[in-house]
Amino acid sequence: GVEIAGPQWFGDGTREGLNQAKSKWDLRPDMLRLNDALGVLSSGERMFLSAMVSFYNAREGGAMLKRCHFNGLSDFDGLDLPRRQVIADLLLNYSGW
Prior knowledge:
Blueprint: H1 2-5, H2 15-20, H3 31-37, H4 43-56, H5 58-67, H6 81-93
């Protein structure tokens, strides 16, 4: 998911940081950067990033999803297949942050 979304939103924000990540903690979402950028991203980017953040922090991610006017799972229909697959994989395999 981080590969698709872009490393600038996670960990230290660099491709090198993504490549060298040893654990999920090395790829924590950059909440300040994400919240600052939410208003200028495309609707698909906002939805995808907000959904990914919700696995890290349900309250923060939920607030971001509300800002994206997310009303339910059918709202993911606007995402392309690779992004929907990431969300589906997280739903199936998520074991806590």
